[in-house]
Write a structure and sequence with these properties.
Blueprint lengths: L2 H17 L9 E7 L3 E3 L3 E3 L12 E5 L4 E14 L5 E9 L7 E2 L10 E2 L14 E14 L3 E10 L5 E12 L1
Antiparallel strand pairs: 1-11, 2-11, 3-10, 4-10, 5-9, 5-11, 6-7, 6-8, 6-10
Length: about 180
């Protein structure tokens, strides 16, 4: 083998050693909740209940053992608003970290972001005409939890801008 080919093979081998990881990357799932029945929300703020009529499905605990642990929180749902004018539904992912901080809306979910919106087609869930602007939507956040311990997470629906909204086929996942 000539010298230039040998140098090329050595260079490619060194590059592959840098690019190919030597350990498995994985995420630990700390919370996994689903709900496949619809929930209709009026024009106020509500906490999503993943158990429907059963108790205990609004607030979920998860633990971290190291300081400054980053977690990823994802909420997804099929979503529509009932409207004949422009309206939207806002979702906040609320975390109460261990320690004295108190609950916060994990960024960027705490802003006035639209989870789903209507497109001015007249509709009303309550009269049987369906909803407007059906989408399968996702809100994803990351947050660094400074203090190890038990934390809580919940999903808040802010319906003031939506009139009536419907969520269905939803899930909440917290991963470290």
């Amino acid at each position: 083998m000539n010298t230039s080919k040998a140098k090329l093979i050595n260079a490619l081998s060194a590059l592959c050693a840098l690019v190919i990881p030597t350990h498995d990357a994985w995420a630990e799932i700390l919370v996994a909740q689903t709900r496949t029945t619809p929930a209709i929300y009026g024009g106020s703020s509500y906490i999503v209940d993943f158990n429907g009529a059963a108790a205990g499905g609004e607030v979920f605990n998860f633990s971290t053992s190291e300081p400054n642990t980053r977690v990823v929180i994802t909420f997804n749902a099929e979503c529509a608003v009932a409207t004949d004018a422009f309206h939207w539904l806002d979702i906040d992912i609320i975390v109460d970290p261990a320690g004295p901080t108190g609950e916060i809306a994990a960024p960027p979910s705490g802003s006035d972001n639209a989870f789903c919106s209507g497109n001015e087609t007249p509709s009303d869930f309550l009269s049987g005409s369906g909803g407007d602007g059906w989408v399968s939507a996702v809100t994803q956040t990351t947050i660094v939890l400074a203090t190890p311990g038990v934390h809580t997470v919940k999903v808040r629906v802010n319906g003031a801008h939506s009139g009536v909204a419907r969520l269905d086929d939803m899930s909440l996942i917290v991963m470290r």
